[in-house]
Design a protein that fits this description.
Layout: E1 2-4, E2 7-9, E3 17-22, H1 34-42, E4 47-53, H2 59-70, E5 76-81, H3 84-97, E6 105-109, H4 111-115, H5 121-139, E7 154-158, H6 162-173, E8 177-181, E9 196-197, E10 202-203, H7 204-217, E11 221-224, E12 227-235, E13 238-245, H8 251-262, E14 269-271, E15 275-277, E16 286-292, E17 294-297, E18 301-303, E19 319-321, H9 322-331, E20 339-341, E21 344-346, E22 348-355, H10 380-394, E23 399-404, H11 415-423, E24 427-430, E25 438-441, E26 451-457, E27 463-469, E28 471-476, E29 478-480, H12 484-490
Parallel strand pairs: 3-4, 3-5, 5-6, 7-8, 7-17, 8-11, 19-28, 22-23, 22-28, 23-24
Antiparallel strand pairs: 1-2, 9-10, 12-13, 13-16, 14-15, 18-29, 20-21, 25-26, 26-27
Helix pairs in contact: 1-5, 2-3, 6-7, 10-11
C-alpha cells in the first residue's frame, strides 16, 4: 500500500482507472479525434476519470495525474501518448510522487502505433482499442517492489576485434575481472585487414598492437583464443559459460598461421592482414567453465563474398573485391604513373558499388546461405571513394570509373570523400538496381584491355556507356558473423539484417 495526502491504494481496492490522453502538440490530435476518444473511454467499465492535455509529459500534464491520485479519484493510471521508451519512466515517477506504487501504471502508444501510420476514423478507432486494452490490463496490475540481485564483478567479452579489445581494456581499467574469448588464433578482427583508418589515417597495425598490448598486460584479463561458447546457464548477473578450445580448422586461419611461419613471426607479433598472434594455439580439444556477471557481444562482421559470375567475380581474374584492392595497395607502397596489381600495369579501374548490399527480392539472387542483404552496409561508399582518391593521387595515370546507385557517405566528415574523389578526376556513372553494370571479357583482337563494363547511365538520361578497363573492383558489403548457436541458446534478439 502507498499513501500521500488522501491517496490510499490497496490490493483489495476496486480498480479506479484514470486515463490521460496526450495531444502530443498535434502529433496525435492532428489524426486522432482526441475528444471523441476521451468520451468513448470515459464510459468504459472501470474508468473513473478520462482527461486530455496538449503535452501530458509537461509539468501541468503530470499535475493532472498527481491531483487525481492524491484526491483518491483513481488508483490506477493509463497514459495514452508516445512510445513508452520516451516517457514511461516519466509517468511512473509521477505516480510514485503521489505516494502510489509506480507499477500501478500502464502505457498505451497512440502516436507511433496509431497517428503516425493511420488517419481519420481508422486512427481514432484503433486508438480506442489500444487504450481500452490498456485499461483492462491496468485493472489487474499488482503492486511490485524492485529486487536487487548480487552480480559477479566479472565480464565476458566475446570477440577479439577492436571493439572487443577496447571493451576488455576499458573494463579492466575499471577494476573488473574480464574474460576475452576469440574464436580464431588472432586478435584484430576486420581492422587487421586494413591499412589506414578513417578519419585520422592512423595505421591499423599501430592501433591493434596498442590495444593488444593493453589486454595482454592487464593482470585481470584472461584471454582465450581458438575458443567458442558452446553452452550457457544461469541468470542476470550470474552466468556460467562452457567454453570450447580446439586446434584451428578454418582454412583462412591455417593460411594465416602458415604466413606467420613464413615471415618468422612469433607469439605477440603482428602480421599485416592477419592480426596479432597473442598465444600458442591448443593442440587438443578442451572445455573450460567461465562464471561471469555480464556477457558482452563484439562478434563483428565478415565481408560479403560475391557468388561465381557476379559482375564476373571468379570468372575473370581481373575482378577483385575492395578488401583485395586495399591489401594489394598496402603491400605496394611505392607511387608512380600507374597502379601495379600482381605485376600488371593498371591503366583503368572500374569500381562497382552496392555488391552484397541493398539487395532487392526479384532482382538479386540470395547468397549461398539463402539470404538477401536488403540493408545498406553504411561503410562501402566511403571506403570506395577513399580508395579511388588514393589511386588517383598516388598513380595519376590510372583512371578510375565509379558505378553507383546512390552515394551514401554516412557520418560527419565523410561527404568530403565524395568531393575529394570528384576533385581528383574520378568519373561517376549512376545505375538503377534493375539495370546493373555488365562486366564482360574483351576480344584482344580489338582491344588491349581485358574487360569492358557497360551501363545505362542515369546521369546522362539512360545513355548506354561502355568503358574498357584493366581491373574491376567490387565494393562488397558487410554480413554478421555466424553466431547462430549462441543466438539459439541465449535467446538473443537479432534484427531483420541478422545483426
Amino acid at each position: 500500500m502507498g499513501e500521500k495526502g488522501n491517496a490510499t491504494v490497496s490490493q483489495e481496492s476496486e480498480p479506479k482507472v484514470g486515463v490521460y490522453i496526450c495531444h502530443c502538440g498535434g502529433n496525435i490530435s492532428d489524426h486522432v479525434d482526441v475528444e471523441a476518444l476521451r468520451q468513448k473511454i470515459e464510459k468504459w467499465p472501470g474508468v473513473a476519470v478520462a482527461r486530455t492535455n496538449t503535452f501530458m509529459c509537461s509539468d501541468p500534464g503530470q499535475e493532472l495525474i498527481l491531483e487525481d491520485l492524491t484526491k483518491g479519484l483513481v488508483n490506477r493510471v493509463v497514459v495514452a501518448s508516445c512510445a513508452p521508451s520516451l516517457h514511461e519512466t516519466t509517468f511512473r515517477a509521477a505516480v510514485a510522487r503521489a505516494g502510489v506504487n509506480p507499477y500501478l501504471y500502464e502505457h498505451a502508444n497512440i502516436r507511433e502505433q496509431v497517428s503516425w501510420v493511420h488517419h481519420g476514423d481508422p486512427a481514432t478507432d484503433k486508438a480506442a482499442c489500444l487504450v481500452a486494452a490498456a485499461v483492462e490490463k491496468a485493472k489487474y496490475l499488482k503492486e511490485l517492489e524492485p529486487i536487487k540481485v548480487e552480480a559477479k564483478r566479472h565480464v565476458t567479452v566475446i570477440g577479439g576485434g577492436v571493439a572487443g579489445l577496447k571493451a576488455a581494456a576499458d573494463l579492466s581499467m575499471r577494476g573488473l575481472e574480464v574474460a576475452l574469448i576469440e574464436k580464431s588464433p588472432f586478435l584484430g578482427g576486420q581492422t587487421a585487414k586494413l591499412d589506414k583508418l578513417f578519419p585520422t589515417q592512423e595505421s591499423a597495425a599501430d592501433l591493434i598492437q596498442e590495444l593488444v598490448s593493453q589486454v595482454l598486460e592487464a593482470p585481470n584479463i584472461k584471454l582465450y583464443t581458438c575458443a567458442e561458447v558452446i553452452d550457457y546457464d544461469g541468470y542476470v548477473g550470474n552466468f556460467k559459460l562452457t567454453v570450447e578450445r580446439k586446434p584451428p580448422e578454418d582454412p583462412h586461419d591455417l593460411e594465416k598461421l602458415n604466413a606467420f611461419e613464413i615471415h618468422k613471426k612469433g607469439v605477440g607479433e603482428f602480421l599485416p592482414f592477419a592480426g596479432v598472434y597473442p598465444m600458442d594455439i591448443p593442440v587438443v580439444r578442451e572445455e573450460l567453465s567461465v562464471e561471469t556477471g555480464v556477457i558482452l557481444f563484439a562478434t563483428g562482421f565478415k565481408t560479403y563474398e560475391p557468388s561465381y559470375g557476379e559482375y564476373g567475380f571468379g570468372k575473370y581474374n581481373e575482378v577483385i573485391t575492395l578488401p583485395d584492392l586495399i591489401e594489394a595497395m598496402a603491400k605496394n607502397q611505392h607511387s608512380g604513373r600507374h597502379l601495379q596489381i600482381n605485376g600488371r600495369k593498371i591503366r583503368r579501374v572500374a569500381m562497382i558499388h552496392c555488391v552484397g548490399s541493398r539487395q532487392i527480392p526479384g532482382i538479386h539472387e540470395p547468397d549461398k546461405d539463402g539470404v538477401l542483404n536488403e540493408y545498406c552496409s553504411r561503410v562501402c561508399c566511403s571506403a570506395t571513394l577513399q580508395a579511388a582518391s588514393e589511386i588517383r593521387e598516388r598513380f595519376p595515370q590510372t583512371f578510375v570509373f565509379e558505378y553507383y546507385r546512390d552515394i551514401r557517405t554516412y557520418g560527419r566528415g565523410q561527404e568530403e570523400y565524395y568531393e575529394r574523389a570528384s576533385n581528383n578526376g574520378v568519373v561517376f556513372f549512376r545505375f538503377e538496381p534493375e539495370s546493373p553494370p555488365q562486366v564482360k571479357a574483351m576480344d584482344y583482337t580489338n582491344s588491349d584491355y581485358p574487360l569492358k563494363v557497360t551501363v545505362s547511365d542515369t546521369l546522362t538520361f539512360g545513355e548506354e556507356i561502355m568503358a574498357e578497363v584493366d581491373l574491376v573492383v567490387l565494393s562488397v558489403g558487410m554480413k554478421p558473423n555466424d553466431i547462430s548457436h549462441m543466438i539459439d541458446i541465449m535467446k538473443l534478439p537479432v534484427g531483420a539484417d541478422q545483426f
